[in-house]
Specification:
The structure holds 2 protein chains of 2 kinds.
Chain A lengths: L22 H22 L9 E4 L5 E4 L2 H8 L4 H16 L4 H20 L4 H22 L1 E2 L5 H13 L7 H15 L13 E7 L7 E3 L1 E4 L12 E10 L11 E4 L4 H24 L4 E5 L9 H9 L3 E6 L4 H8 L3 E2 L11 E11 L2 E9 L6 E7 L2 H23 L2 E4 L3 H16 L2 H14 L1 H9 L4 H13 L5 E4 L4 E4 L6 E3 H20 E7 L1
Parallel strand pairs in A: 4-14, 7-9, 7-11, 9-10
Antiparallel strand pairs in A: 1-2, 3-15, 5-14, 6-13, 7-12, 12-13, 15-18, 16-17
Chain B lengths: L11 E4 H20 L8 E6 L6 E4 L2 H6 L6 H16 L4 H20 L4 H22 L1 E2 L4 H17 L7 H14 L9 E7 L7 E4 L1 E3 L10 E10 L14 E4 L2 H24 L4 E4 L5 H9 L3 E3 L4 H11 L3 E2 L11 E11 L2 E9 L5 E7 L2 H23 L2 E4 L3 H16 L4 H22 L4 H11 L7 E4 L4 E4 H4 L2 E3 H20 L2 E4 L10
Parallel strand pairs in B: 5-15, 8-10, 8-12, 10-11
Antiparallel strand pairs in B: 1-20, 2-3, 4-16, 6-15, 7-14, 8-13, 13-14, 16-19, 17-18
The chains are: A alpha/beta, B alpha+beta.
Chain lengths: ~525, ~525
Amino acid sequence: MASPAVQQPRSASSKTESYVDNKRKEDIRRANIVAARAVADAVRTSLGPKGMDKMISTASGEVIITNDGATILNKMEVLQPAAKMLVELSKSQDVVAGDGTTTVVVIAGALLKQCLSLLNNGIHPTVISDALHKASLKAVDVLTAMAVPVELSDRESLIKSASTSLNSKVVSQYSTLLAPLAVDAVLSVVDPAKPDLVDLRDVKIVKKLGGTVDDTELVKGLVFDKKVSHSAGGPTRVENAKIAVIQFQISPPKTDIEQSIVVSDYTQMDRILKEERNYILGMIKKIKATGCNVLLIQKSILRDAVTDLSLHYLAKAKILVVKDVERDEIEFITKTLNCLPIANIEHFREEKLGHADCVEEVSLGDGKIVKITGIKDMGRTTTVLVRGSNLLVIDEAERSLHDALCVVRCLVNKRFLIAGGGAPEIELSRQLGAWAKVLHGMESHCIRSFAEALEVIPYTLAENAGLNPIAIVTELRNRHAQGEINAGINVRKGQITNILEENVVQPLLVSTSAITLATECVRMILKIDDIITVR
Amino acid sequence: MAVDKLFKDEATEEKGERARMASFVGAMAIADLVKATLGPKGMDKVLQSTGRGRSVTVTNDGATILKSLHIDNPAAKVLVDISKVQDDEVGDGTTSVVVLAGELLREAEKLVAAKIHPMTVISGYRMAAECARNALLQRVMDNKDDAERFKADLMKIAMTTLSSKILSQDKEHFAKLAVDAVMRLKGSTNLEAIQIIKKPGGSLKDSFIDEGFILDKKMGIGQPKRIENAKILVANTAMDTDKVKIYGARVRVDSMSRVAQIEGAEKEKMKEKVQKIIAHGTNCFVNRQLIYNFPEELFADAGILAIEHADFDGIERLALVTGGEIASTFDNPESFKLGHCKLIEEIMIGEDKLIHFSGVEMGQACTIVLRGASFHVLDEAERSLHDALCVISQTVVDSRVLLGGGWPEMVMAKEVDELARRTPGKKSHAIEAFSRALQAIPTTIADNAGLDSAELISQLRAEHHKEGCTAGIDILSGAVGGMEKLGISESFKVKQAVLLSATEAAEMILRVDEIITCAPRKREDRM
């Protein structure tokens, strides 16, 4: 239990943080730390290239196999408030950097462990909190000093960092395929006018069951996970396509006000059917007149987008139809096709159409997709078609690809690379340890603990790879002390090597945001002294 | 017994000593609950909701904590109310007011136990509060005439307020944000014109102030993404169809072509409406409700930027800052006032795209964009910033400034002590008690920081016997220090409100000698 506070000689400069608090508050803080550490321990084994995966069976009976920290934590549904904060932390890292979601939680867990022993020594939580803040600022400086600048034209380096991220995932054996794919995808959406901004929404990922991850490809164009509506025998392949994105429906008219057609005898019925036919035929004629031969129809909740009748006429007019396009996809589609959506038949004009070389339906496995390629004046978007032998693999591949995309995006935002394989953490630990010796008082003590906590990353990396963690970490420390700042754990060879030469690199942003976010979260947990149940 | 049964079943009545006890205990329990959040080293609380989602809030703000508590004790409710009022009136000091009221009651309890009538205690408290207020009034500083020094004062106050919050690490940055935002208001206390947008990602330091207005919405497809010299029409109108709002209204037709005609007529009506809107000479149309695909396309064709689904807050503020009106009919374009701004463009913050209106009519308006690690951080940052904004805007109106760090409490305590010595009779006990309660605030601040409060307070008291003393507690070094040198200031208005409302609340609770709890209303349907 808490040892009695160390009595300090009273002087003007000394801080008298003889921290005495009542039992309950201490207990709550302790309970928070224990809960948060339990969360960190749960994901610890999934860190690194040899980290293990977790199988999660959700409340709805769905099974997910993943190595992605953010996903694991998200599905865990923890209740304890402090544990929840760690889940949030992982989410934030996902938003900021997209990768390193496990790392950030593991660091936070290690920091909390050190904080617990500092609290046991009777140091006031706010003092620890301030010291942690200082240490994290210093850590960012150290990391920035270690970083190597990278150019966007240097495709090799970008691929290296993307493959480092992919290596720790289920799909690691495909990293040679996925890494260049991720790099190309991101680079193709970078707008030369605004080189620092990448909107990952411009990269669309389409998942399709069948084949293996090997068949994953980057499509310069559009892919719909939909069938062409050809129940009436319409075309499934159109060359020199003129594409219209329409937001109205080719079906019998329907008014917004409630309506009913009164039929009093069967001759009227005939007339109505004829009118319906004429109505639809009129619409299709107008469409055909503009030369349009591909229609993308937005989904409507109010009425059928197309009827059998209209499909029949469309087929006769040799128009390819894709229906049920979601409204939120419209913006992406119009941006890609460089066309305008058409909301009314009266506005169906030629200048609103998009042009492409080829629109075709392709059979993949047991399903079919629609591909639009060779788009004229294509917008800055791209589509990745992910394949896999089962749904679990596809989902995991998608998550991994997302991480890789984020890594490349980080590099576009902040063009610095840093070594991987535990090298930055051990270097931080060494430099902060040295810095702590220069400082005085409690601060020095806390910063030394911070430095020690960072060793958890190389330690866990080694442990997960089945190496002797103590031997590895001590050797690593030794090599760094001799000035080899890029020495890191080579998990494949099971020894310490210059990790930059091994092409294990990661963006600086991932490391810095992991440190700052983890510190911020730990500081918040430290400052909590009570949990109140409210409405 | 004369009266057999006065109250309904289950209604309870507590009298005299018991009633007073109950209210003392309740009020003190509340005060103790928030006590630990006071001061720069105060701790935070986690509020765990029992409702759906079991959402978690981490906060240091007294008003927020108290607002969300389940409370049964009537006296405790009084304290929650004064904290709420303090929040509405001046925005800061919500914890201080509760702690002071709690301490006043704690002292009063001792006096009552010593057989001093509550009324005597009340009159003593009243005299003491008056005297304390005068003591502060004599020592206020007012730099209203010197713009430079006044701004420095505002910075100091903002930093003092923020130092007890989550923003303490970057308090200079945020103090500057807050002061800049309030200075733009040019003396008005209309905080509506300051919009706070929270976007997760980045760190707190990346927060910034932006002149103009940011709307968290997307632009329509195929419409201009950048408009200069925009004329903005803000509207709240249905842009799907003007439905007949009579239940059961329907049309009967006898052929399909008639249905098509009606549909065409509906479209035509919509088109007319859009034409009317365009006739206003606007080039940016912001609607609170949805804009359907059809009118959206019409707007796109006319080269007008149409923004749909802006929320209530959004359009009201937009109308305010651009100087326009909110329209719902479009028949009189002459008499309608359009909003204006110099430039509308799309900007990206973090991962999201937002619409930015710059060079707006009302120059006072501005937007503060908060960035932070998670929603917990952002929510708390918003509450903290709100406190700072309130205090600063109040100080702009009432520019009297005091020192901080427990200095005002010690000044008041000293004056009140002297008053006690001059006052004959039992009242003097109450006045003395008041002074002790005042000293409880610096004591709590010191205790929360883990400092030796008894030692510090006695040193502080000794310092304050010198004339023109500026000593207060310097939490960072853990010693007594000159507050003027350290730049710790507080607004006079906040302190005055704390003093007066705490005294009033204490007085109110003291007067109670009977609590009647009505029988809870029965729920019939519950089995």
